[in-house]
Amino acid sequence: MQRMDLEADQRQKSGKGAARTIRRTGRIPAVLYGDGKSSPLSLHPADLIRILKSESGENALINLKIKGEKSVETKTAILRDFQKDPVTGGILHADLFEINMNKAIRVRVPILVQGDLPEGVKEGGVLQHNLREIEIECLPSMIPDHLDVDAAHLKIGESIHVRDLSVQQGIRVLEDKDLAVISVAAPMSEAKLEEILAGTPAETKEPEVIGKKKEEEGEAGAEAEAAGKPGEKAEAKGEAKAPKAGGKEEKKESGAKG
Fold first, then answer.
1. pTM for the model
2. Domain range summary for the chain, segments of one domain joined by +
3. Which of these, 92, 74, 71, lies nearest to 82 by C-alpha position?
4. Residue 245: is its pLDDT beyond 80?
């Protein structure tokens, strides 16, 4: 595990205003966490970038020299997090964590594919890097820069899982052992590729709109009701005319009798 030197200054003020003031001087605000407390610091972003570009990257052990008003204190730390400017990409803030070399810590380690081109890829298969980093737990001095995976022997349909990874004794892998790290998938058929490129959506049935259905049912009911009313009126008129006709006949009959 690579160890990197980093110098930082103690700062008395914190908050957004103090952070902006620090950035105007060409430095960035940082915080060191450990022993249940936090210490505000300031450091030069170029020194942090140098650490990030090292072989160990974010997992590099840092010899942190903190300059106070009257003394210089050295602590061992590791970079826990940092924020970048979304526009310029420059580092805006860093979080460091003080570590005890005799106490295990958890970190994420990248996985690198080594060796020749997998046999399955030579046969037309597609190499898939399913898991690019894993979480492990170990003493700080045992943190590897990365884990190597040799996939040269993989054939189409074969995979290397977390359980197949080779790690040093004393390192505990915290990921699910059944997760695939590297695999070789079967090549895609031309018909399937053309189907994807064409982007022809499958036929789908238009969902029924309840409100629209009710509206149509209402219109149909109104039409049926409207169609039924004339008949009802005609029938009603017929019933009304019968007594009148009967009345006239009765009058004629009564006139004849008289």
1. 0.67
2. 3-99, 106-197
3. 92
4. no
